[in-house]
Amino acid sequence: MVDLKADTAVFTSLESEVRSYCRAWPTVFTRAQGSHMYDEGGRAFLDFFVGAGTLNYGHNNPVLKRALIEYLTGDGITHSLDMFTGAKRSFLQAFEEFVLRPRGLDHKVMFPGPSGTNAVEAALKLARKVTGREAVVSFTNAFHGMSLGAMSVSGSGARRKNPGIPRLPSYHMPFDTQGTDEEPDFRWFTRLLEDKGSGFPHPAAVIVETVQGEGGINVARPEWLRALDRICKRHDMLLIVDDIQMGCGRTGTFFSFEEAGIVPDIVTLSKSLSGYGLPLAVTLLRPELDVWEPGEHNGTFRGPNPAFVTATAALHAYWADAQLEKQIFARGEQTEEALRRICRSTKGEGTSMRGRGLVWGLAFDSPERADAVRTRCFERGLVIETAGPRDEVVKLLPPLTCTADELDWGLDLITRAVTDTA
Predict the structure, then answer these.
(1) Domains observed in the chain
(2) What is an example of a GO molecular function annotated in this UniProt entry (predicted)?
(3) Angle at Cα 242 formed by Cα 240 and Cα 245, nearest 5°?
(4) DSSP string, 227-279
(5) What is the rounded distance in angstroms from the CA atom of residue 287 to the CA atom of residue 10?
(6) Which H or E run contains 212?
(7) From residue 233, how far is each of 91, 182, 285, 360 by CA, in Å?
(8) Host H or E run for residue 316
(9) What does the pLDDT look like over 186-242, one tens digit per residue?
């Protein structure tokens, strides 16, 4: 059990009350490497949070760090707006070689700004520009960011709060309810689209997460996604896949939608794209949708060259072959089996599990129980968060590069926490 007596006075006295994650993990972290973080007292914490999915390759990954240090010590360009740079060229070439071309994708790459919500805003703006329509359809329990447009298509009530400002036109449909119909959950949607008297405006686009992270690790089935893709094509709506948290290998393949065999019109990526925790986001769009005028969507931080450098290194190191994908699937099976054991041991206590690849959720009937498990894990040296509409799901996001032993250790800590809080 770790001793948690950290000096946090300056944070509680000076930092805004909007801070959140630090409330669950009340210590001061000073360094990190691989799957671990260390606080100023030298205590080690296994990290199953990894920056909310931003550090898929672990902390201070040595391959990425070496590339970054060499670039910085060589006085490489740091900031460049959208000017041409060698670092950007290398990233684009590697992204095409290792990601787009092997998957038969010809999408153009747009740099909308540093964060995921920038990528979402660009996607929504482009969909409205291309179609000339305003409405966008999203899903229950979705989360797409904290800027105005992104909040408008998020399903969480808490995330959608924005007092005094009207939200943009959006409509929410049920996320995959795991039904058995060929086109589950879409009968009402289709009726609204086809009935001229429904009063339902023709949407410009549909935006979806194939696995809802903040929503509670809700996994859309491949057939559900294929049905959604068909409806979008049938009714001339653009399909936007938000892969900000689930992309870059989190579900096993680089893009989370690959399993379903669909090709979205627009894809948003961020979080682990740089691989090193440096801000980098892209909006991918089919070539025929690239109707932007020069400078029509702008921003100061669209040329983050250090992030281009680490992203390029990550692509070469982890996506030039299938080794990482194989490891993710193996670690995913290891995680699934451990969570099944936990669920069997708590039979009748409202515990269930769900996930794909290396993103998993352990759901409890009581959010208080989930919070207690998270707290107990932290006390024992494991950083893990909760998710879901009531924060009732313990969310597992271990590094994709973690060892089997590290994963076993973390899963054992979760098992013990569940037992302790029964």
Answers:
(1) 9-61+322-420 (3.90.1150.10), 76-318 (3.40.640.10)
(2) diaminobutyrate-pyruvate transaminase activity
(3) 170
(4) HHHHHHHHTT-EEEEE-TTTTTTTTSSSSTTGGGT---SEEEE-GGGSSSS--
(5) 50
(6) strand 211-212
(7) 31, 16, 16, 31
(8) helix 305-318
(9) 888 898 899 888 888 999 999 999 999 999 999 999 999 999 999 999 999 999 999
> How far apart (Å, rounded) are the C-alpha atoms in residues 414 and 172?
34
Q: Is 125 helix (H, G, I), strand (E, B) or coil?
A: helix
Residue (of 324, 353, 352) closest to 336 by Cα position: 353
Q: Could you tell me where the beta strands, DSSP code E, fall in 345-403?
A: 351-356, 359-364, 382-383, 385-387, 393-396
pLDDT tens digit string along 7-25?
889 999 999 999 999 999 9
Give the span between the Cα atoms of 82 and 111, in whole angstroms. Answer: 8
Give the Cα separation of 138 and 414 in Å (integer).
33
- For the record, the structure tokens of 185 come out as 């959950």
In whole numbers, what is the pLDDT of the chain averaged over residues?
93
Which position has the token pair 């054992």?
412
Using DSSP, state whether 13 is helix, strand or coil.
helix
Q: Which helix (H) or strand (E) holds 109?
A: strand 108-110
- 305-318 and 62-73 helices, crossing angle to 10°: 140
Single out the residue of 149, 143, 154 nearest to residue 167, CA to CA. Answer: 149
Q: Report residue 302 as tokens.
A: 């669209």
- Measured between alpha carbons, how far is 373 from 413 in angstroms, rounded to an integer? 10
The pLDDT of 388-412, averaged and rounded, is 97
Is pLDDT of 178 > 90?
no
Q: CA 341, CA 40: separation in Å to the nearest integer?
A: 35
| Nearest C-alpha neighbor of 210 from the set 181, 246, 180 | 246
Burial of 274 (0-12, 13-18, 19+ CB in 10 A): buried
Distance of CA 216 to the CA centre of its chain: 12
Q: Which of 155, 201, 195 is nearest to 175 (CA)?
A: 155
Which 3-state string (H, E, C) describes 16-55?
CCCCCHHHHCCCCEEEEEECEEEECCCCEEEECCHHHHCC
Task: Supply 105's token pair.
Answer: 């994708």
Number of H helices and E strands in the chain, helices first, is 13, 17
Residue type, 113: G
Model confidence pLDDT, tens digit, residues 119-138: 999 999 999 999 999 999 99
Query: Whole-prediction pTM value?
Result: 0.95
Paired residues of 285 in beta bridges: 108, 266
Q: Band of the pLDDT at 179, cuts 50, 70, 90? A: low
